Structures are given as structure tokens and as C-alpha cells.
């Protein structure tokens, strides 16, 4: 007797699965904005708006969450003059993690479903997210605020693409399936000197990235302590606002979204470069000059006036550089020092030259990384004096490069003392 078999089904095309995966990610990330905005509207916080207006506001919030700038238009102060325009630009790094993590999950699922045509799924997914961004930019446009259709199509896929590729690589375990190039084979064809140079450069890059990561982590811890110590002032601002449960919840969500930005601004503060909260303002470890600020509770933790022990914060980037130098020593990829030893027998000279060169390379790498994160964390509200919010990327990069380089010299020297091989008897 022949048993009934399960009917054969056609497998889903990989590009279609990519469309569904990131389409789902776009919808879920939209709910992160729609739910709070709808809660405020239902509680009477946006009573003067229609449901269409609230929907467009949510769409603009979705675009801002992905880093898409909005063109704001304000009515003229004097009748007969042209309308005043400004550019609102901010990347809430805490909220952008939502689409990034959803895309990371989608990348893993696409890599699991693909054997050798992964690019089809990635391309279909990114085109879907670009279409979603363009559609939201078109539908959410109002006379008061609008986004460029080109920006709506190109900027949201950036965060989604990073998560998508990272998730696909994590699942695939090799870049050959993601980009179609076997990097290990390509490196194997290079000469020995090229591989040594590549290993040295790769270790320097990772050391510089480690320095930025440690500096940002210590700065985040410093920010958390500062918020804890000033919690009474923050709570007082919440009480004065009296926005109800819905309003306070949305305000808290907004602050959590910008908390990583504040951590990076704190990192700039620890380097001595400081950051600005409006045109003409400056916050540094030595002194703070700040004008009137909006009633945002987390701003109640800002330092004010002259800080007698603020210079102690400069130890944060130096410590980050020391850990980076120590890590590089433990990595054992100092091929520049090995090459210098072959060229000269003066060990004191070759050791000094290789250590100073290493410190310069790590410092430059960390400085470039610091300038990049400063650029990403900056914001502009597009009106009045609040067009400059955050650190100066060039100033932060220069200060961080110098301080990390000093710490790298110390860390490499300490590593050579602590990591000595025990003597054999």
C-alpha cells in the first residue's frame, strides 16, 4: 500500500525572502514610533492634530530615528518676509539599534536559507528598505516639515545594511558567502612580508578601535554616575513638566534613545575637547559656559561653573590608550620592531623607535575613530541657537589621538614588564 506523500512545494526565492524579512523589520521599527505618538494623542497631548497629522508626525519620527534630516519651515516673524527654514538632523543611537538588530536577525535568516546566492537576498532586502524609506518620506511630508525623497531612500538602508551584513556574516562564518570573495585565499597568495605588514596594520586598527571602545565605555560609566548623583534635580524637572504618564513615558524613551549620544559627548568632555549645547556654549573639564536650555530632565545632570578637579577626567583617554598598547603587546604582532632589529643592533634605539611609531599609529587610528563617532553623534534642532549640539569632530579627534598615543606608550612599556616569560631553571 502506497502511503500519501506530502505535496512538493516550490522554495521561496531568496530575493523574496529578503523583501519579507526587511519589510517586517521596517514595520516593527515603525511601531516603536507609532505606539508612543498614538499614546500621547489618545491621552490628549496632541488634541489639536487630526489622525492624518499624527500619522505624518509618526512617519517623520521614523525617518529621524534612522538619521534622515528634516527640513523645517517656520512662519516669518515680520509679515511680508520669507519663511525661515532650518535643518533638523539627529541620529538617536539608542533608537537606531532597533532597526539594526532587526536587520541583524534578518541577515542571519537569509544566510541560513542560502548556500551560494546570498547576495540576492541582501539586495532584495536593501531595496525594500530603500523603497519603504522613500515612501515614508513622501507620505509624511507637511508644509512645516519634510524630508528629501533621495535621503529617505538612501539613509535608512545604511543602518539596516550594517545589521544585515553583520548578521549574515555571523551566520555564514566567512566573508566568501557574503561578498563572494575568499579573503583567506587572497591573503595566502601574498608574500610573507606583505602578510607581516597586514598583520601589523590589522593589529593597529584593532588597538585603536579598542581605545575608542574603552574610552566610550568609561565615559558611559561616568555619565551614569553623574545622572545618579543629580537624580534629585532630574526628578524635579519631571515634576515641573507634569506631562502625565504618556508624556513622561515618551520623554523618557526619547532620552534613552539619545543616551549613547550623551555618552559619546561625555567622551569628548573627558578628552578636553568638550562639546556644545548651542551656539556660543562650551562644556569642558575645566569650565562650563551654557546658555538657557530646554526643559529636558537629563540636562539637569550637566556640570556648571568651574570644576576644580575636572582635569582628572583626562585620565580616561590615557587609560584607554594604555589598555590598547598593552593589548597590542599581548597580540605579538609587532613586526615593525622585528624588522628594525634586523636593521640595527642598537636595541635601545629600535625599541624606542618601534614603540613611538606604534603609539603614533594607534593614536591616529583612535583619533579617526573618535572623529567619526563625534560626527555621528552630533545633532541640530534647526532653529535658533540650537543648531550646534555635540562635539567638534576635528577637535575631538586631535585630542583623542594625542592622549591615546601617550597612553599607548605607557601601556606597551608596562606590558613588556608584566608579560615577561619566566626564567627556566
UniProtKB/TrEMBL annotation:
The chain crosses the membrane at residues 22-42, 54-74, 86-106, 118-139, 145-167, 209-238, 244-263, 275-296, 308-329, 349-376, 396-418. InterPro entries: DUF6350. It holds the Pfam family DUF6350. Keywords: Membrane, Transmembrane, Transmembrane helix. This is Uncharacterized protein. The lineage of its organism: Bacteria, Bacillati, Actinomycetota, Actinomycetes, Micrococcales.
Amino acid at each position: 500500500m502506497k502511503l500519501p506523500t506530502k505535496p512538493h512545494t516550490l522554495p521561496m526565492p531568496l530575493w523574496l525572502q529578503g523583501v519579507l524579512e526587511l519589510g517586517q523589520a521596517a514595520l516593527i521599527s515603525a511601531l516603536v514610533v507609532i505606539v508612543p505618538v498614538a499614546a500621547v494623542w489618545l491621552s490628549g497631548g496632541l488634541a489639536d492634530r487630526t489622525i492624518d497629522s499624527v500619522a505624518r508626525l509618526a512617519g517623520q519620527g521614523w525617518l529621524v530615528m534612522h538619521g534622515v534630516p528634516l527640513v523645517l519651515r517656520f512662519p516669518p516673524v515680520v509679515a511680508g518676509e520669507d519663511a525661515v527654514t532650518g535643518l533638523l538632523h539627529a541620529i538617536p543611537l539608542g533608537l537606531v539599534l532597533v532597526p539594526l538588530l532587526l536587520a541583524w536577525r534578518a541577515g542571519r535568516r537569509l544566510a541560513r536559507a542560502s548556500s551560494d546566492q546570498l547576495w540576492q537576498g541582501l539586495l532584495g532586502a536593501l531595496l525594500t528598505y530603500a523603497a519603504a524609506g522613500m515612501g515614508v518620506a513622501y507620505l509624511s511630508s507637511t508644509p512645516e516639515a519634510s524630508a528629501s525623497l533621495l535621503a529617505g531612500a538612501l539613509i535608512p538602508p545604511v543602518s539596516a545594511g550594517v545589521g544585515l551584513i553583520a548578521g549574515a556574516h555571523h551566520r555564514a562564518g566567512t566573508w566568501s558567502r557574503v561578498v563572494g570573495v575568499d579573503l583567506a585565499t587572497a591573503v595566502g597568495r601574498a608574500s610573507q612580508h606583505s602578510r607581516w605588514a597586514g598583520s601589523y596594520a590589522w593589529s593597529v586598527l584593532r588597538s585603536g578601535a579598542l581605545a575608542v571602545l574603552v574610552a566610550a565605555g568609561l565615559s558611559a560609566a561616568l555619565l551614569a554616575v553623574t545622572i545618579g548623583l543629580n537624580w534629585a534635580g532630574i526628578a524635579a524637572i519631571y515634576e515641573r513638566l507634569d506631562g502625565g504618564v504618556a508624556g513622561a513615558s515618551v520623554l523618557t524613551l526619547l532620552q534613552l534613545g539619545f543616551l549613547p549620544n550623551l555618552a559619546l559627548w561625555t567622551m569628548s568632555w573627558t578628552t578636553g575637547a568638550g562639546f556644545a549645547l548651542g551656539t556660543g556654549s562650551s562644556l569642558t573639564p575645566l569650565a562650563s559656559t551654557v546658555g538657557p536650555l530646554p526643559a529636558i530632565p537629563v540636562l539637569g545632570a550637566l556640570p556648571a561653573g568651574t570644576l576644580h578637579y575636572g582635569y582628572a577626567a583626562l585620565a580616561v583617554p590615557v587609560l584607554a590608550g594604555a589598555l590598547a598598547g598593552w593589548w597590542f603587546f599581548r597580540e605579538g604582532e609587532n613586526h615593525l620592531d622585528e624588522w628594525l632589529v634586523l636593521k640595527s643592533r642598537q636595541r635601545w634605539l629600535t625599541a624606542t623607535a618601534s614603540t613611538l611609531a606604534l603609539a603614533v599609529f594607534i593614536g591616529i587610528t583612535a583619533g579617526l575613530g573618535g572623529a567619526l563617532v563625534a560626527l555621528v553623534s552630533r545633532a541640530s534642532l534647526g532653529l535658533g541657537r540650537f543648531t550646534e549640539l555635540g562635539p567638534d569632530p576635528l577637535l575631538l579627534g586631535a585630542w583623542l589621538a594625542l592622549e591615546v598615543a601617550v597612553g599607548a606608550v605607557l601601556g606597551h612599556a608596562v606590558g613588556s614588564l608584566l608579560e615577561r616569560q619566566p626564567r627556566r631553571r
